[in-house]
Amino acid sequence: MSSFDTLVSGLSDKERLEILQRMKSSSAALPLNMQLPEKLDLIDASFDIKTRLEKISFVERIMLWLKATFTNSSIEDAYNKSRVNAYAHEVEHQYLGLIDYRHKLVLDVMLNYFQELRAAAKFFEPYIAAYEKNPGAFYVLLGSIVMPGEHADIEADVDPYAYPFTEELDPDLHANLSKKLDDVLSGIPDSHRKIMYASVASVEWLRAFVRIPFERMISKFSFDDSGRKTCHFENMGKDFCDFASVMCNGKVLSTESLQTLFIFYMKYANQVSAGEGGSVLGEEDFLQAASLQMVSISTYIKTVPTRKLVCVIANNVQFVPANISGGEEWFVKYKSEWKMLFEHKWSQWMCDYEKERLKKQVAAYFGYESLPLFPYRPWSTVWEGVPFRYELSLGFAYAFYKDYFMTYMKSLKQIALAGEFAIKENRVEFTDTCNTLYHVNDDLDVLATQLSAGGEYGLLFAKYEGQDQRKSGDIKSVRECMRQIEYRTANIVKTLLGSLNSLQNLMGGILSEHITSYYGPLINLGRIQAKEGKNRQFVHSLRECRFGVDHAYDILNAVEPLELPTGFTG
Questions:
Q1: Of 301, 328, 355, which residue sits at a domain end?
Q2: Does a structural domain hold residue 36?
Q3: Do 292 and 241 fall into the same domain?
Q4: Residue 181 belongs to a domain
Q5: Residue 102, domain member (yes or no)
Q6: What total number of domains does the chain contain?
Q7: 229-232 β-sheet, strand order
Q8: Cβ distance 159 to 215 under 8 Å?
């Protein structure tokens, strides 16, 4: 599975293949790449009063000195007040309805802007929440869109599956592939790095925008005597300064960034939101809605002199918007995520390599051409296949029982009926072990019936065959069903392994091939079925039983580490 497939594994193949193309065609007609003004406000970011005082005329300095003298303040304070008054006059007369400087009030036009921007923040909030879950994975997906060449090189050159399982495992293969990954990553040209940085920085800005406390700011407005909603400058306080820092550093997301946010959220939505009954927008609806919200943000940034406004509200002409950090470490996280994806694929490949080795053992010991699967696997026909943790162990256990072990049981019954154990405790353990193995066979039969077309589980899975869309209720039903099946299978396999191990020890003693202080021989082994002239055949069948039990136990033990938790989430 490619890294792209892994990142969007919550989607069907059909959805995965079509989603980017549809978004590209949909975005062509939308004004997503809007330009913000080069200077968001006519104030120098490095504004310093003392420096400015040195540049003003002699007459202006005299006027400031007089004001400072009459108001019993410093020249710097007098200059600050004069500039704040000038900004306030400009804002009041050129941008009507934002503030009432005389009464130190923020007015309802500004409240309307807050409400519009709050709507935009709420729209993007779930997409940013998904991004925050795993920024590194987001960057890899973003890279597949803005740097398709480098992405394709990694997929092609750093793939252990390019090496056949039939070859002897090269001890240096992992190191060689890891070096290839480093080479591709270090070779990303500066032009592509700049595009990635700009894209990541814009997403980080959107993250800061979403975190603006709009609700708290809006709640500070109250009706005045004229029935108009207003808020005193002092009540805005730090919240407005934080708001201004974000809006004065405004960025517009590129189409590629929006596409990545949507696709990444679709994976998150399928795993979480859909499971909670949330609704998910389609790609066209998302792009149209995102475009409208970006227009609202861009319009505010272009229309409202936020830098001057915050100087007035904070009564500080030296206010400098804090930088919105983020994006600087994109490459570190991007590289780290690729390393993790490579290690994950390497682990998968090693599992498959071990499976290939097991296939050879199964063929040699039991004559199967491949690792046998359970005859009824209804989960494999739903949503392109729901992962099941115990595919290998359940399939092998069932095949071993039906093809071999029930035959072994005939000989084991003879021991139960006529065997004389040198150690009497061995008889008790032998009887208990045989009874347990009988019950395992019954459990396998019951599970097979339930998973068949007319069984309880089979009927449930049949309802979802051929469906591409996954409804929240369906996901919950399948998740619960898989939990039950995996729980029961785990108990069957655990019980079978314990019983096979017990039978191994017992058979070693019975055949006098491995006698210990705990497991002794069968005293009358040479006399069982001797009258019928079948003792030699009987002993041979016991040796076949031990051979099969030994190798079945080894195979089931070897399969266990290959069956990692699937954690099906839908």
A1: 328
A2: yes
A3: yes
A4: no
A5: no
A6: 2
A7: 99-100, 105-106, 229-232, 222-223
A8: no
Same domain, 319 and 403: no
Same domain, 320 and 381: no
First to last CA, the chain: 17
- Kindly give the confidence (pLDDT) of every residue in the chain, 570 residues in length, as a single tens digit, with 9 standing for 90 and above: 444 344 444 454 455 445 555 555 544 444 444 444 444 444 454 556 666 666 676 556 667 667 656 666 666 667 778 889 899 999 999 999 999 999 999 999 999 999 999 999 999 999 999 999 999 999 999 999 999 999 999 999 999 999 888 778 888 999 999 999 999 999 999 999 999 999 999 999 999 999 999 999 999 999 998 889 999 999 998 999 999 999 999 887 888 899 999 999 987 665 544 444 445 677 778 888 998 999 999 999 999 999 999 999 999 888 888 888 778 899 999 999 999 999 999 998 998 898 888 999 999 999 998 899 999 999 998 887 888 999 999 999 999 999 999 899 999 999 999 999 999 999 999 999 999 999 999 999 999 999 999 999 999 998 888 776 677 777 888 889 999 999 999 999 999 999 999 999 999 999 999 999 999 999 999 998 888 888 999 999 999 999 999 999 999 999 988 886 654 444
pTM of the model: 0.73
Domain that holds residue 543: 371-562
Domain annotation covers residue 57: no
Burial of 414 (0-12, 13-18, 19+ CB in 10 A): middle
Placement of tokens 């705990």 in the chain: 518
Any alpha helices (H) in 248-388, and if so which ranges? Answer: 255-268, 283-303, 306-314, 330-366
